Design the sequence.
């Protein structure tokens, strides 16, 4: 029995360590690297000042924000900043650690009964809720129903977040086009001196440039990043759902393991 | 027991207060702010009059309305104005208040039986219908079936509203392009005096500008706003559906609470 | 009992009246108004003859028809004209009249048994089929299965119609672009006399203009109109499906009413 | 009894006749008519030779083929030619003939038992498989499961075919744009003699023209044509699925007829 | 009995042979052929050096990579290279070989019981897992549930791979546009000498060219290739799922064969 407990302690330790929120290094590299690339390629041909146009920046950024405010409630839009920060951190739970914990809980259930789980210190709130419901003697069907609501409602809440960034990703280029149209109309109306056409048009095109950069280096990749993180969280929650179902129905840990490792790739399964 | 009733009174009070239709401040800021931004950025380069072209405005706005009239019945298109006004108000029910009320009703049912709910003053019409059906002794399955029809038919009705704005959001830029094509063809046919090319083209581009502004500062964000409000209403209705199901099946209030709080985010759950 | 029969007669009368196919006034206004708008805005700047180019019109209209012939069978494409005419008429059944009739039939069933429905004159063919199957003693599950096939197959048949107009709505602008490319290539090859560039390009742009007008004032809104009418018909058929199910299972009319009014908006329910 | 058999013979005869693969006249008219239209509209303004550019044609056609080869296995791409030929022929089974045959088989089953079907000559392979499984005494659920796999796998196989043409329909215009970009870059680099700009640009635009014509007169309509044929085949297979289910469960032919005619439009039902 | 075993040995042999990972010749031809085509069509008009612009290439390739890094975790993006290599190889299992093996296993089960499968050497890991669970005496429903998780989780993992290439396929042209905008703005600002306009614009257009080539000759077709391979793998896994279900339920091999051959096209069935 000792070995079991030791094993558990060991992975609980590693669980806690890995849960320490990690900076998502790729996101940071990507966003800094992307802007550095653009700045460098500008500097190869001109000074950076040629690409700075405060009114143009205002209309693209401001217009995108205004359009987003129409689309969503104030607190959700303000919350979007917080959501965007999520894209820079990686606090997803490792599926294999969760699986190990569930198997150890299933083993304990088989040996000491469901009530033995009551004093277990389960960190993952979703797993904790499932275990508590099982310990309370709720029917497995009822537990599954409740946990499914939990998954669906988490996905829906997160999707509201992605939607804002997707919306910004389509609105920013449109605002860029609106800015360019304003510049073009003003330029064309007073086309007396042909030598001013070039510089005026250069300024007009800057808003299109801002819109494209914002959309393709900020909003769209962040929207996809968040969607990917939700998919990951969903997998972990589905693992927990299946595991708790197995525990509540009193299945043998090897059966539960068979079922849960099906969520992992062939390679990860063999490694463990 | 006193405490329970007091608690209930207290939240009923707050429920009534919060139900007072609130102006959706973000939508108002967004639409006013958006137009102010565009006007300011025009004024930085020219007078506003350079961007006013009544025939151009007529073809974009009129063409979009005509296309929408082909698409939908007269009363639905007229109703769209009313629907658009909805986007400026926030009369959504707070999920946690609804959950509190359902739990209190579940508690009452456990103590005094289903018939005790008959005299309860339930404001939310959907919850009221569900409770009434439960009191009338309808089978839980039958209640769920009826409430699901209600959700689906509400969503379908609302979607007909969003569709009009989405349709306008794609039609307005197309009408802008049609207006610009008319202007370009007229300009190109009589290209005798090169000095008139600029101003003529400036006027031709205005319809494209109108189409883009209408689509990205009015129609598209309003369509998304309405879709978001429908999603919110759907969540509240799903909470009620699950709650009424629990009440009709005589479940314990703590079980119902477990199930219903699953619709809320982790944070909101702890706050309560 | 007299009152009941009177009520029924009264709504049967109004049912017949309303079934008289009505012109869908919005569609007619939209399509005429749209073209008037475009013609007026052309006349403000030039004569209408500048926008008439028979070969250009031929390539856009003809090319779209040819592409559609490749896509679908001859009789379906010819039938599309008939389908388009549907968009101009409103022969949808009013959901509340259907609900009233179903409730009256349910009442009759409770009083006189299912066989009493045999001599009822039910006009709606789908309702008539459902009632006949119930009278014939078919199992409710079997009736539902048959009626669901009916709904799905109606929706699929109608969707084939919408698809043709959606296809035309994407093909017409493409044909317009092809026409413009032909004109541009011919103009550019013989660009000896700069004074002819303008008029040649004006002519080349006309096909793009035709394609956009056809797509956004004819094909796309008609496709959406037909899709909306299918949605409406689907709701009526779902009401009938639920009503016939209730009648076949011998449910009380008030229960059926509860279920069927769930398909209506809150407002329409109270009005009745 | 004689009448029944005569009836059957008669429709089997017509079945065989109609099964003779017919040329899909609309597809042939569409593709020839489309190219004639484009050639005529070219001839109105210049000779056809101005629109022939072998290298341009090579990059659009070749590039599209190469991209498609990356996307799919060699035998599937080669098979796509065969699939495209399908679009020119109409060998779909008429739903009403299949329904008549199923009803006659159901009648025979009621009179002589399931085993009587053993010697029936059923031509449609899918119906034959279903009947054979019923005669073999397989459970109706098992038959339905097997036939559903058959439908899904046919649809998936056909969809792989449509996908190739849809892919070509989006890749061809892109290859056209790549060709035009190559031409533009070469023209702009050596822009010494302004008189050569026009003709060079005319040539550059030809690839865009080729890409658009291929996409909108060949690939896209063929993709839609094949999708429509798959939908038709799916309806016939669903009719057979329902019919075989009825026969296997020993339902009365009038019940089966009620169920199967639900797949047809109101008009076709009455005609028969 | 001898014949059976011989047959089995024979196909096991061919199975092993065919499993040898084959180069997907079409993908290799497509990617090399595509680039050769583009290079040849460039050489027809100018030297290749006119199309090489290192900073432009850097901004398109680098920007696409940076954007992708924001979107996904570092190890997933690095893994994408490995995933891309998959597109060049064909290691899919032949459905008919898998079917033959399942039928032979089913036959063995009918003759010698489920436990006889224990010593069978099953290579396909998914089939092996299913067989092992059946031998272990798991309920068929439980086996199906576990195998379905396996399919869904494989599809989800693979889709994460496709998504990266689809994302790159939309980001690369956007980065190309950003590069062109930078070049245009720099050119327009210093438009003093008209003779430099052409060459500058030629260079500016190169990034658009790079973006289009990368998207339509590399990223998009690879994304579709991987999606197609996943579909194929899914079919094989569904065949195994159905086969293991049949074996676990002790069905006769001819029944299993009927069910599994439904996954194949009519032609492949007859050939075998």
Sequence:
């Amino acid at each position: 029995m000792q070995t079991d407990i030791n094993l558990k302690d060991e992975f609980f330790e590693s669980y806690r360590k890995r849960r320490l929120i990690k900076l998502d290094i790729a996101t940071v590299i990507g966003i800094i690297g992307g802007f550095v690339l653009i700045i460098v390629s500008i500097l190869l041909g001109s000074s950076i000042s040629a690409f700075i146009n405060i009114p143009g920046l205002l209309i693209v950024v401001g217009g995108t924000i205004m359009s987003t405010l129409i689309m969503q409630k104030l607190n959700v839009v303000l919350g979007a900043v917080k959501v965007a920060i999520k894209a820079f951190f990686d606090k997803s739970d490792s599926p294999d650690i969760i699986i190990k914990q569930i198997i150890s809980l299933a083993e304990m259930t088989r040996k000491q009964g469901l009530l033995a789980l009551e004093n277990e210190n389960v960190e993952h709130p979703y797993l904790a809720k499932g275990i508590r419901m099982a310990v309370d003697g709720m029917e497995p069907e009822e537990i599954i129903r409740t946990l499914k609501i939990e998954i669906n409602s988490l996905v829906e809440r997160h999707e509201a977040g992605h939607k804002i960034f997707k919306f910004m990703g389509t609105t920013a280029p449109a605002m860029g086009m609106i800015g360019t149209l304003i510049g073009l109309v003003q330029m064309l109306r007073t086309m007396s001196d042909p030598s001013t056409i070039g510089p005026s048009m250069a300024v007009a095109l800057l808003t299109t440039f801002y819109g494209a950069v914002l959309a393709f280096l900020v909003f769209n990749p962040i929207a996809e990043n968040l969607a990917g993180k939700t998919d990951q969280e969903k997998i972990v929650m589905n693992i927990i759902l299946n595991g708790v179902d197995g525990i509540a129905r009193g299945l043998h840990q090897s059966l539960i393991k068979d079922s849960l490792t099906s969520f992992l790739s062939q390679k990860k399964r063999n490694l463990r």
